[in-house]
Amino acid sequence: MSSAPTPPTTAPDVIRVGTRGSALATTQTGLVARRLEELTGRTVEIVRVRTDGDVLTGSLAQMGGTGVFVTALREALLDRRCDVAVHSLKDLPTAPAPGLTVVTPEREDPRDALCARDGLTVATLPRGARVGTGSPRRAAQLRSVRPDLDVVDIRGNVDTRLRRVHGEEADLDAVVLAYAGLSRLGRLDAVTEVVETAVMAPAAGQGALAVEVRTSELDDPVVAAALHALDHEPTRLAVLAERSLLARLEAGCAAPVGAHAIVDGGEVVLTAVVARVDGAEQLTHTARAALPATGGDVHGARDDVATRLGTRVADALLADGAARLAPLGPPADAADVAAAALPDAGSRRGAPADAADPAVRTAREQLRDGGYRGERA
Q1: Are residues 297 and 303 in contact, defined by beta-carbon separation less than 8 angstroms?
Q2: CA 124 to CA 103: how far, in whole Å?
């Protein structure tokens, strides 16, 4: 009598990738899905998951912050309704999720983009122009360089926002959107200015994607190798620094905080801005940290350097009074804050953003003093 057949031990040949249903989310997910097919040789199916952020109305802060776009996808992962989830990294809460692992593909341009009527730029918008954004960070930095603007809180997908500038019933002169999203959607034709980070520091993680899986899936060598190939170290180190800063500041989506990190040679360089909502005052801090040489088992050590850099910049901002400007959490231990507040190259304690960097100061002076001479809209 023959024995019962042994159940197959091979990994499933279909990878289900979960995504929000918006045009931008499905486009971003499609990019990851095609790459996963190439790397694994397996069939990839896209699974749409409805999130609270797709259903509820009102501002992001009123809905509970960026986590409204993430929770449903993570539940689908943990419930095994999908095997991979793709997020915009800036939507991920900074706290790690137990049982899940995130990798970061190469980042798109993290800058913000102005989409205005008649080819206008931040400098040439007429006085009193109406500019739409749903981001307190963008609103505060716009008001800093152009205090005359009427900044309007808006919601909706990319097309909905652009129609408020170019549609038949347009009621805005411009909107500010992420360059990365417009690029992925093939809508760069709408951009009239890519705003330099010296004028408008981006959100932490902006332009980057997060590919998330159940940690147990890494036991599959094909999946593990594909995720390793997807992960882009310069992107990972930059967003680790930016998100570490947010975590230390305890800054939610309502806090006007911008952060931009790059890997420059053998260093990570991080610049962060904390602003008052009305844009009347800003603090900035820039610091850099040397990375251990590549090769061998230094992955964790390089990540630790980036993470500590973010914490150090956050502590310096808190020591300079950042919590007075924006809704932030309590500072760290006083001794740690005092140590972290020692001046770094490229920063100046207690100074507004304009004073920290000649390039920033020049950009802001040009915009405030000579950049907008138009008639009131």
Answers
A1: no
A2: 40
- Whether the per-residue pLDDT at 90 is higher than 60: the answer is yes
pLDDT at 58 over 70: no
User: Which range, of 196-210, 319-333, 341-355, averages the lowest pLDDT?
Assistant: 341-355
Token readout for 264 is 């420059």
Q: What are phi and psi of 51, to 5 degrees?
A: -115, 160
Provide the 8-state DSSP code for 342: S
Under a CB-based contact definition with an 8 Å cutoff, are residues 349 and 319 in contact? yes
Ordered by where they begin, the domains of the chain are 14-105+209-231 (3.40.190.10), 112-201 (3.40.190.10), 234-346 (3.30.160.40)
Which of 50, 54, 97 minimizes the C-alpha distance to 76? 50
Give the span between the Cα atoms of 94 and 96, in whole angstroms.
6
Asked if residue 337 lies in contact with residue 322, where contact means CB atoms within 8 angstroms, the answer is: no
Q: For residue 202, which of 178, 175, 183 has the smallest C-alpha distance?
A: 178
CA distance 18 to 38: 18
Q: Which residue has the tokens 């100061």?
A: 361
Residues with a catalytic annotation lie at: 91
pLDDT band at residue 67 under the 50/70/90 scheme: low
And the tokens for 53?
Answer: 């952020």
Give strand pairing partners of 210. 87
Mean pLDDT across 77-105: 94
Q: What is the pTM of this model?
A: 0.82
Above pLDDT 90, what percent of the chain? 71
Tell the residue number behind the tokens 């199916």, with chain if given. 45
Q: Which of 40-54, 273-287, 362-376 shows the highest mean pLDDT?
A: 273-287
CB-side neighbour CA atoms (13 Å) of 19 = 23
CA dihedral 89, 72, 137, 347 (to 10 degrees): -40
Distance in Å from the first CA to the final CA of the chain:
89
